[in-house]
Each structure stands twice: as structure tokens, then as C-alpha cells.
Amino acid sequence: MGNPHKGRTGIDRVTHALGYSMQGLGLAIRSESAFRQESALALVMVPAAFWLGRSWIEVVLLAGTVMLVLIVELLNSGLEAAIDRVSYDVHELSKRAKDFGSAAVLLSLLLCGATWAAALAHRFVL
Predict the structure, then answer these.
(1) What's the CA gap between 86 and 4, in Å, rounded?
(2) Per residue in 26-75, pLDDT tens?
(3) What does pTM read for this prediction?
(4) Cα 87–chain centre separation
(5) Do the beta carbons of residue 98 and residue 80 sit within 8 Å?
(6) Residue partners of 83: CB distance under 8 A and separation at least 6
(7) Which residues are within 8 A (CB) of 45 and not within 5 positions of it... i.e. 6 or more apart?
(8) Which residues does the annotation mark as catalytic?
(9) What separation in angstroms does the CA of 70 have from each of 25, 36, 84, 113, 123?
(10) Rounded to an integer, what distance in angstroms lies between the CA atom of residue 100 and that of residue 93?
(11) Three-class SS of residue 55?
């Protein structure tokens, strides 16, 4: 027998998918301190992107890099949860996977910071 969740179609599928997504966001906010901190910053930075950006492209880049950080953080948390589900034992491959996820978060934060620094410099310095 196949996956019972794969039989949903149309609005039923969309409704369930939205529910699962909202559960995931709620769980991340409740249980992941890094996601909670980044979400708090996003609540300030996304509206600020509309003030700082001079064109729709700049707004999308500013807000998009903030959202990218949240997306990568969620993927990293999912990866860590899956690894911990398998085993809490210290294993080189588990460490590697978690380090790769952490590096992805770092790169998204650096991209976001550099994008915002460039936009701020362009607006106020240059």
C-alpha cells in the first residue's frame, strides 16, 4: 500500500499542506532559538526593506535575503532533526551534515548582511 497522504488532490491537498506548513513555522518559533531571533529581526527588516529600497528590485533583494536566511535556517533545523532522529551518537557523517547545514546558514547571513550594507551605503554614503 502506498503513502496515504499522496491521495489528496485539489483544495484538500492545499489545505493540508498549508496546515503542515503552519505547524512547522509554529514549531520552529517555539523550539528553535536561532529561528526565533532571526524571525524577530525579519519583523523589523522586511518592512524596512520597503523604506530603504529605491526600486522594486532593491526591495525584493533586501526582503528576499532576509527571507532566505529564514528558509535556510528551517532547512538546517530539519536536517538536524532528521539526524537526531536516527541517532544522538557522535558520528563523523552526522557531524559533517550538521556542519554543512550550519555553513549554509552562515553563508545566507553573510549574503543578507552584505546586501543590506551595500544598500545602506548606497542610500546614505554614496
Answers:
(1) 23
(2) 999 999 999 999 999 999 999 999 999 999 999 999 999 999 999 999 99
(3) 0.90
(4) 24
(5) yes
(6) 94, 97, 98
(7) 62, 63, 66, 116
(8) 73
(9) 10, 9, 21, 14, 25
(10) 10
(11) coil
